[in-house]
Amino acid sequence: MQYILIADDNPDITDVLSEYAKKEGYEPLIAADGEEAMQLFAKHAPTVVLLDVMMPKMDGYAVCREIRKTSDVPVILITARGEDFEKIMGLDIGADDYIVKPFSPSEVMARVRAVLRRMVKKPQESTSKNVLIVANLMINLDEYALSIDGQRMTMTKKEIETMWTLASNPNKVFTRDNLLDSLWGYDYYGDTRTVDSHIKRLRAKLDTVEHPAWSIQTVWGVGYKFEVEG
User: Of 29, 43, 116, 158, which is the most buried if we count CB atoms within 10 A?
Assistant: First the structure.
């Protein structure tokens, strides 16, 4: 049995999403607050998680952070507000997608199918092919770890995937659409501003340690590239 965890303090929303989830073959787990969501998550290990951002006891961001400490299960955040900084915050803490209310239940299920397809496309194989070293940079996809000069950096899953995509193709220019499609998927309903904000936050983390042999460069009017000196 595949479980889908639906956490929202509005019973009208959980009721309708439960019905659509059942049509998709899932057994819904319903939580009315963040603490209950964490209890159900620990007990049942759901296949996918839908989290309302504004919930009692623990909000959706807090629940997502806790989940990411132990699991890469797909997490989709749902909120009544759609400001860019909130979307970026959700993605940076490890959410896989973001839906703004009001929404259609069929759209939510389409997002669920999309994030699960992306998980299938990127199986984690424990091989040396998943380790990339460029000068003082090391990225390990097996451990989802990134270090510079041996110093492990605090990175989200999406930030490490972004670095892997860029650094494994040195000096290749990626358009914003390229990055949006490859990192968030063709089914993602975001826009290219998400990429710009994501790169800005990533650079801020990288620049806390010197890395003169490489950098993420902006190609104005086009996108970004991982530039290697020499």
Answer: 29
